[in-house]
Design a protein that fits this description.
Blueprint (H helix, E strand, L loop, with lengths): L33 H24 L7 H10 L7 H43 L3 H13 L6 E2 L4 E2 L3 H10 L9 H15 L6 H17 L6 E5 L2 E2 L2 E2 L7 E5 L4 E5 L5 E3 L1 H9 L2
Parallel strand pairs: 3-6
Antiparallel strand pairs: 1-2, 4-5, 6-7, 7-8
Helix pairs in contact: 1-3, 2-3, 4-5, 6-7, 7-8
Length: 274
């Protein structure tokens, strides 16, 4: 046998990392790669959530009705009868629609994947903010009294809570939800707004912490208390918008014409946290 084949690296049953292969390490399985088990798996969890958000806010593809109308009006396919004219006139607009819709879906998926990967890589980096987000997520998940303002319901998973707080416009380094409510409550009491009535102060604090986050940007959440006189809400001189009825434990909106109406869903959100 050739001396070359007698080298350690060619001996049956021996290690392939001897001889000229000395110093090299065995390859790890792809499934055991830290990127796949850590960042990769976290990306898989986040991507569908980002995709849902992007799909909701990315303008829907529309059928080019103008082109269809032009085709019908021109009578390009009129010689074959009405049905044939309609079908023929639809062909080019529908091709445009499907092409644009495919491009939209691809952009949503690609965008979601990039956002998810970026978020997963950020989470993999140790930081004080990450610890604060994780703390708030652990506190929120499993506590039925803590509501996800996006859905109006309790957080269903740690991942949902972590994603919400990591994407929140609020500084994640701030105090927890319950801590924020407690601080707001103390501010109301210190200002003498409610004397020593902690129940009313807490209702207002919950509204300004939880309900405020659930109000859409196009609505005016004033953060103020609406008072009652002679059994009716006092609206004179008040700016139209959403107010807190701490006595009735309700969320009330003052319309531009001065009338009022209860915001039932926001009232339920307010009460669900108490």
């Amino acid at each position: 046998m050739s001396r070359t084949l007698k080298r350690p690296m060619f001996r049956r049953g021996g290690s392939t990392n001897d001889g000229i292969m000395s110093g090299l390490t065995d390859r790890t399985k792809h499934a055991d790669n830290p990127f796949v088990t850590g960042i990769g798996k976290r990306t898989d969890v986040l991507a569908p959530e980002f995709e849902t958000i992007l799909d909701k806010y990315t303008p829907k593809t529309r059928l080019p009705i103008g082109q269809l109308g032009l085709n019908l009006a021109s009578g390009k396919f009129a010689g074959d009868g009405f049905l044939q004219n309609l079908v023929g006139s639809l062909q080019d607009p529908y091709r445009q629609f499907t092409k644009a819709d495919d491009a939209r879906e691809a952009a949503v998926r690609t965008g979601a994947a990039k956002l998810a990967l970026g978020q997963a890589m950020k989470e993999a980096q140790p930081s004080d903010k990450r610890s604060q987000i994780a703390l708030k997520a652990r506190e929120a998940f499993g506590n039925k009294n803590i509501i996800n303002p996006t859905t109006g319901k309790p957080f269903t998973s740690y991942g949902e809570a972590y994603t919400y707080f990591s994407m929140s416009a609020a500084d994640p380094g701030r105090t927890s939800i319950e801590g924020a409510i407690a601080k707001s409550k103390q501010n109301f009491l210190a200002a003498g707004d409610y004397g020593s009535n902690e129940i009313l102060a807490e209702r207002h604090a919950i509204a300004n912490t939880i309900v405020r986050a659930a109000v859409s940007k196009d609505e005016n959440y004033t953060g103020k208390r609406i008072k009652i006189k002679d059994g009716e809400y006092r609206t004179q001189g008040q700016t139209p918008g959403i107010y807190v009825d701490v006595t009735g434990n309700k969320i009330i909106e003052i319309n531009p014409d001065g009338t009022t109406e209860e915001k039932q869903e926001l009232t339920e959100l307010l009460r669900s946290y108490q």
